[in-house]
Amino acid sequence: MSAVRAPRLSAHARKALIVETALLLSDEFGPEQVTTERIATAMGLTQAAIFRHFPKKHLIWTAVAEHLEKSMTSVWDKAEAETNLPVAAVRSIAM
C-alpha cells in the first residue's frame, strides 16, 4: 500500500494551504486542538514539511491572523465602497 502524497506546490502556495488547513481544523476541533501533526496528517505531509515552512508553531497562527486581517479588510473595503453609511457597511459584511 503506498502513502498518499501531497502534490508539489510552490513554497507560497504550500504556506497558504497550511494556513487554510489550520483554519479548517480550528473550525472543526477548536484552535487549542490544532497541532502541527494534525495539520500535517490532514495535508498528507510530515511534520517536518510543516516546520520547513513555519519553523515555530506560533508562526502558523501569525500567518492565520494575517490571512484573516486581509480577508476582513477586503470585505470591509468592498462594503464601504458600496455605501457611505457605517451601519449599512456592517450589515453588508455580516451578510
Explained architecture:
This protein is elongated. Helices cover 73% and strands 0% of the residues. The mean pLDDT is 87. The protein is mostly helical and 95 residues long.
Q: Report the structural category.
A: mainly alpha
H-E order: HHHHH
Question: What is the CA-CA span between the terminal residues?
Answer: 46 Å
Quick check: average pLDDT? 87
Which percent range fits the helix content?
over 70%
Spans of 5+ residues with little confidence (pLDDT < 50)?
none
Question: How would you describe the oligomerization state of the chains in this entry?
Answer: single chain
Q: What is the C-alpha radius of gyration, as a whole number of Å?
A: 17 Å
How many runs of DSSP E, i.e. beta strands?
0
Report the portion of residues in β strands.
Answer: under 5%
Report on the biggest sheet: none
Number of helices: 5
Shape: elongated
